Amino acid sequence: MDNPHGADPRFQLPQVRRVDNARPFAWLRRGWADMRDNLPASLSYGLLFAAAGAFILGYATGLPHLFTAAISGFFLVGPVAAAGLYEISRRHDRGEPASFIDSLRGLSTHADHLLYFGAFLAFVLLGWERLSALLFASFYPGDASGLGSFFLDVFLTGASASFVVWYLVIGGAIAAVVFALSAVSVPMLMDRDTDVVTAMVASARAVGANFGTMALWALIIVVLIAVGFATMAGMIVLLPLLGHASWHAYKDLVE
Predict the structure, then answer these.
(1) Closest CA to 248 of 196, 170, 200, 191
(2) Which is more confidently placed, 237 or 106?
(3) How far apart are CA 201 and CA 191, in angstroms?
């Protein structure tokens, strides 16, 4: 059917749905079902995530400002990193083959959009790393010579209270903006013929229309990724679970 207004449908904002506050637990259940039904492919991505996490920990262990920026930055780039898992869930929903290789083929189909969105997240990550270093230089009273002394200052002595407050406030604000723009945008780019800006605006609208639900979803993501980093082996399972669940969040939130 012709568009009576002559507008390109790729640039039309989709409608967003309102869902109840307990919906994130349904997304986790559906994500678990996707992972169970596509276990080899899902765990392949989990192994890649765990390897990346181990590299981050190994590289930044003696550099607290890099360590904190890298760990928090992992949350920022997660939406693009999980694109292969979205493709597995998309194919699974359609009854199509969903192996690891199949998911890579799907990624190549959407390479341009993923590259643009990835460039945006990379820019944010680089800015956050520089800002993190500035916060350390301005507010951290210790010498930041190692993680042991850093954690002692932050968690036991209380000498770094102002640093912790500023780090959490500024880092949390950046994370909140990125989460709003990316919560459903990458799954939408994998699923529809749309552009990056439209997907980000649709994501922000979906988050705004479901603020309490998405706040809970963000908390679940933070907790599970933290558990994954703390255990490392848990990352192999928890990050694919979150990736698949995020696909179902998109399907619930965007018409």
Answers:
(1) 191
(2) 237
(3) 16
CB neighbours of 195 closer than 8 A, spacing ≥ 6?
Answer: 10, 11, 113
The confidence score (pLDDT) of residue 28 equals: 97
Alpha-carbon span 35 to 226, nearest angstrom: 20
6 in any annotated domain: no
Q: What is the pLDDT of residue 4?
A: 47
Structure tokens belonging to residue 63? 């550099």
| Phi, then psi, of 128 in degrees rounded to 5 | -65, -35
In a domain, 155, yes or no: yes
Would you say residue 80 lies in a domain?
yes
Looking at every residue in the chain, the average pLDDT score rounds to 85
Q: Which of 127, 230, 114, 81 is nearest to 222 (CA)?
A: 230
Q: Exposed, middle or buried by CB within 10 Å (0-12, 13-18, 19+), for 52?
A: middle
Q: What is the dihedral of CA 241, 247, 251, 255, to 10 degrees?
A: 160
Query: What's the pLDDT at 1?
Result: 41
> Which is more confidently placed, 140 or 27?
27
Classify the C-alpha dihedral 107-113-116-117 as positive or negative.
negative
Examine the pLDDT at 157 and tell me if it is beyond 70: no
Name which residue leads in pLDDT, 64 or 38. Answer: 38
Return the structure tokens found at 188: 């939408």
Grouping H, G, I as helix, E, B as strand and the rest as coil, residue 17 is coil
Least confident of 101-115, 130-144, 168-182: 130-144
Tell me, yes or no, whether 88 lies in a domain. Answer: yes
Number of domains within the chain: 1
Range of 86's domain?
A: 20-253
Q: How many CB atoms lie within 10 A of CB 204?
A: 19
